[in-house]
Amino acid sequence: MRTVEIIVPPREPHFVGDGFRVHNFIPGGYRLDMKRMDPFIMLDYNSRHYFPPSEKPRGVGVHPHRGFETVTVAYKGRVAHYDSSGGGGVIDEGDVQWMTAASGILHKEYHEESFSKEGGDFQMIQLWVNLPAKYKMSEPKYQAISNGEITKYALPDGAGTIEIIAGEYRGVKGTASTFSPVHMMNAKLEKGGSAEFSFPAHFNTGLLVVEGSIKVNGGEEVPTDHFVLLENNDTDFSIQAVGENALVMVLSGDPLNEPIAAHGPFVMNSREEIIEAIEDFNTGKFGHLED
Ligand code: MN
Q: Do the Cβ atoms of 65 and 104 come closer than 8 Å?
């Protein structure tokens, strides 16, 4: 059985712009540097937080990315997004936005206007998925995935549902296309319900408990907003919702095992490529987007 390596509590939150109050898990403290969960190189989690009404939408202004993909998963609240390649839209509760920055993109992310005016609970994940070297300079791409489009797998005995965002579960393929083998799914478990997972042992695998609390392989209880890093010692593990219904983000990916050179919003393979990214950004090669 694949065992628990460490249970990581949420760190003190910090603000990204003025709209995202996040706990950073990757590349954070403990063992979660940019290599340990390769190809998942960054994980920011806005745990459920009430934002009061605001006439001016909160968020993050225009900024660049190169060399990887940003994946936003909305649980509560709505985000509006625009990018320099013409992609954009609203990420509603249950939706996923999979943006491939690749050779370079400018984008901005704000609370959606009517959500901002009304205020409300806000809860989101933003994940950076690294790209293999050979795809880092490919064309940017944008996958807007509404909740209705996400493949669902009904667990036996009414134990719950697996929403397969990417990868596959029990032979059922997920919705998003990826550049390397990545599994990403929301496990929605009824109280007492359990689900079993099987990923190759060398796939880096972790769980973020978004709602409720769980046990992994029947072990110690993991509360809401905690991350579970699993060992790379075996394939199979199970999770069970204890006490109430649970929602767990399940991540597993084939490590790229390539050198990482990271600087702010750019993640490349060498220092030279980072310098090139900064020069290209400074000379307007990432396109144009109004603030
Ligand atoms: Mn961004």
A: yes
